[in-house]
Structures are given as C-alpha cells and as structure tokens.
Amino acid sequence: MSTLVPILPESAPFTAEQRAWLNGYLAGLFSRGTLDPAVAGRAAAVPAAAALKPLTILFGSQTGTAESLAKKAAKEAGKRGFAATAIDLAGYTVARLAQEKNVLLITSTFGEGEPPDNAKPFHAALATPDAPKLAGVCFSVCGLGDTNYVQFCQCAKDFDARLEKLGAGRVSPRVDCDLDYENKFTAWLDAALTALSATTAPAAPVAAPAENSKSKIEVPSPPADPTYSKKNPFPAPLLVSRNLNAPGSTKQVHHVEFSLEGSGLSYEAGDALGVFAQNCPDLVASVLGALGCDGEEAVPAPDGSIVPLRRALTEFYDLGGPSSDLLAACSVNLGGGTAVALHHVVDVILARPELKLAPADFVRALRKLQPRLYSIASAPKAHPGAVHLTVGALRYEKDGRGRKGVCSTFLSDRAVPGQARIGVFVHSNKAFRLPANADTPVIMIGPGTGIAPFRAFLEERRATGAKGKNWLFFGDQHAASDFLYRDELAALQHDGVLTHLDTAFSRDQPEKIYVQHRMLDHATEIFAWLEQGAHVYVCGDASRMAKDVDAALHQIVERAGNKSAPDAVAYVQDLRTAKRYARDVY
Ligand code: NDP
After folding, report:
1. Best residue among 389, 449, 484, 585 to mutate for probing ligand 1, ranked by most atoms within 8 Å of CB
2. Residue 343 has what pLDDT?
C-alpha cells in the first residue's frame, strides 16, 4: 500500500531550511510507519505512544532569546517524556491557561519592568480580578534580564507571583537570569522538568492539535545550531567601518561590514548580530592602575584557563557596571549613602584602595563581558557572504569621567578593517520579519540607528521583486550631516522600491520635528495602509521615541479611523496580536 507523505506548505511558519528538515522528518516517520497520515494532515508529528505528559512552554520575548530558549526547552522536555509545545504569549489566553496541566513560562522584561510586547495582553488579562482560578496548573517561571536595571526580571516576578495567587502550584522556584543566562537557564530547566516529572497528575493522552492552530503544532526542533554560535562565535573578518555622518555632526554612526564567508552562518532581514568586543585599552590601564597591577598577573578566564590579567580585562570581563559580588567583595553598600557614585568597576576599586584585592579574586567578582546585539542592516540576498550593521558610537560624561560604549567604540575607533577578526554570531528575531505575503504594504519607523533593519527590509524586497508598498519614516538631527544612507534611499525611491520616504530633521529649525509628527501629518494615508493590511515596524530608541510613536499610532487610528480612544487601543492591540506591529527597540 502506498502512503502519501504530508509536506508542509510554503506558507507554514518555518524558514525554507526548517521546512526542508521537517519534511524529511515527516518522511522518516512515515517510512517507519509511526505516523497516521490522517493525523498528520491536521498537524505535525505526534509520537505513536501517545501517553506522554503534556507540557506547555510559554514565552514572552522581545528580541527572540526567550523564544529560542522555549524551543530548546521543548526539545529537552521531549527527550524526557513530555509532549511539549512552545507557545508564543501573543494571542494566548488566560482561559487556555486554566485548562493546562503543566506550564513553564520563560519571559524577558522590557523597558522599566514591563512585559515584552508579545506578552502585554496576557500579562494584563492575568492581572485582572476576574482572572480564572488555576488550581490544576503546575508551573515554574524563568526570567531573562539584566541586573543593570533596577526592575530586574520584573515581568517574570509578576507572572510567578500572580500564578501562585491564582492557585497554580509552583513545582520549582523561579530563576532570574542575567545577560549571561546559559548556565542558570539550564539548571532551572533541569530542576523544573525533574519536578514536573515527579508530579502525580495523571499523564493525559496527547490531544490532537487544534485545526488552524499554528502555535499548537508540536514540532521537533531543527538540527542543532550551526557550528558557530554565541558559545562558539565566528571570528569574522572586519571588512569596512565607515563613518556615515558628514563633518559638523554631533553623532558618529558607522556602517560596519563583516565577512561571513566559510562560517556556515545564515541570517534573515530582521535578525540581529551578536558581536564580542574588547574593552578600551585606556579603561583596562586605569583598572590596572587602580589595582596596582602591571597586567602580567595570572588570573582565571571565565572558561577556567589561566591568562594574564591584562588580557582577561581586555577580552573576557565586564568593566562597566559593578556586579553585586564586586560590591560585596569591596564591602560597598550602595544603599548606605555612598559618597562616590559607583557606576563602574573602576569607581569601586578607587573607592576602596586600601583593600588591595588579589587579581584572581578581583576577576572572579567580575561579570563576563557580554556580546552586544545589533540589528542587521543588510539583506543576505543583496550581500551574499556578508553582514552589515549600523553602529552609533556611544560616548558620554558621567561623574567627571568620559565613558564609552564598549562595542560601539570598539567597532568605530579601534577595530581595523582588513586586519581585525571579531567574534560574531547570528541572533534570530522571528518577531521582526517582513510579511510572508510579498504584496503586503509595510510602514517602517526608524530614526537614527533605528534605520538598520529597514535598510535590510528594503534590500530584501528589492532582491525578491516584492510588489508590496514600502513607507519609511527616518529622522535625525540635521539633514546635512546625519541623513544616514541618503544615496541608497534615493536609489531605492528611484527604483520604485521605497514608495514613500518621510524625514524629520529635529534640529534644522527652531522647533523640534520628530518622526511621529510626520506620521501625524499623514494620518489618513497611514490609516488607509493599515486597512489594506499593512505591517508596522518601529526600530530605535526605546525610552522616548518608541513610546511617542506608539502614542502617535493610537492618535492616527482615533483621528483617521474615527474611533474612540478605547477602540483605538483595541485596534492597535489587534495589530500586535496579528503580528502586524513589531518593535525592535533598545
Ligand atoms: P536618537 O534616537 O538619539 O536620535 C535620532 C532622532 O530622534 C534625532 O533627531 C532625535 O532628536 C530624535 N528624537 C529624540 N527624541 C525623540 C522622541 N521622543 N521621538 C522621536 N524622535 C526623537 O538616535 P541614535 O541613533 O543616536 O540612538 C538611538 C538609540 O540607541 C538611543 O536610545 C541611544 O541611546 C541608543 N544607542 C545605544 C548604543 C549602545 O551602544 N547601546 C550606541 C548608540 C546609540 P533630538 O536629538 O534633536 O532630540
């Protein structure tokens, strides 16, 4: 008897590579007779022994990290006898949560303690007084955050507390991970899965995934990461680092190009690139001076190998904000009215010179230097074997000391094109993708370095001949000196790829003009595009710009759509849920 092997359609929510792999996986299952084609017609792989413990792994993700960890967790859980499903919190409901048995929730925190965009409605719904009781739910929460922020992992803390309050049973404690999340995440997952395995709740048969429910389709993860990853970065030759500003600018934004030839790394427009930078030699010298060391002292690197102190401080340890370990080692109590502002490692050592920390103890109290993520500015189809970034050099004065962004000034000032090889990896951001339908219009709002992913989107749409309309809002201080990629944008307009370009140069006139003012000028047309199904993307400054642009979008829907304020909120929320309003903001 011949068996028809199902093939995932091109519209399935996977990359071509993933689809190819999954099709192979399905074919393999069929050849072993483990999959009933009737079931497969509705969904993907359901193991034959269908009495696995169900496990729902929810993720709240802004830049894709929580999403990729949720998928890793699903894979690991699958190996341990769970029927695990990673589910995006966008569109997930509290009513559905009340039906679950076993839940892991992995979430980042965004801005000042807020949930990531995809988790906002769920977070709000769970907080309402009429949220359902969750007595039958076993759970554990993992938070992703950055200890430099006061509201560290706040969203995870909120979920953890609320789930408990609603009667769900915490099977293992919440873990809050710093930027260096790998080990803590792995330990949390192990503890949570072990605890869930031990719960006595009866193993439910694996329910057939609901029709049309993409997020419920249980899929095995594609093959392991390519050889090069965050753990094993590719030493990418730096090809170009070119200042995009003209003389007279107060900004220093660099166009940076790396070669990915021979790395096997691939990316899509919308992804980010992780870059391992080195600390500034002047900063390293001032730390060595404060410690009274010459830099030759042998100290442990984070991987346990022994290296000279200077190299350790240059390549491996964070000399920015002090860790709580360092503050403890120096017996510095920040809450106790410390006279000196201790914003940097060097401030802490200088505050306690009498301690004379041993170099090895000192580095053990430091955080690992973390890679920086930059939105990719190129489309792979337009630049095969290369990846481009748009990097704004960060320099500022604090407490009478000049400070510099570690990676941005490394790339713009010190790394030499043609000579430097710099560790990089691709950080996938599936939440920031061009519409699957090439005819769908897109509206892109990207002032300053926020233009980066939109250069990639426009290159991608040109390379694929996509017919959809494209509208870009760009802004910066002065047209004469800060109009990033001006010529390229003009060429894209000339080619008919960039349908509309609106600019807001904030300091070319007495009053400030920002991108959101330009948007409001075009409220009627923007609303018409939204009604035609346009996707809206925002990239750039999170603290002011993204909030004001969000407010402008609501105003546009109110005014041009003739809606009440609550209806406009619901309209914009629907855009988010439909993944038509995505933000890559920092
Ligand atoms: P900016 O966002 O600072 O400036 C771009 C334009 O936006 C300017 O014309 C600016 O005007 C304008 N602007 C200021 N406030 C608003 C607002 N509320 N709404 C809309 N537009 C506004 O661009 P950059 O590319 O310099 O920086 C982007 C972000 O990236 C910033 O948050 C910056 O701090 C951050 N950054 C981070 C780096 C890092 O290493 N982590 C490196 C470089 C930048 P005006 O200035 O005249 O008010």
Report:
1. 449
2. 80
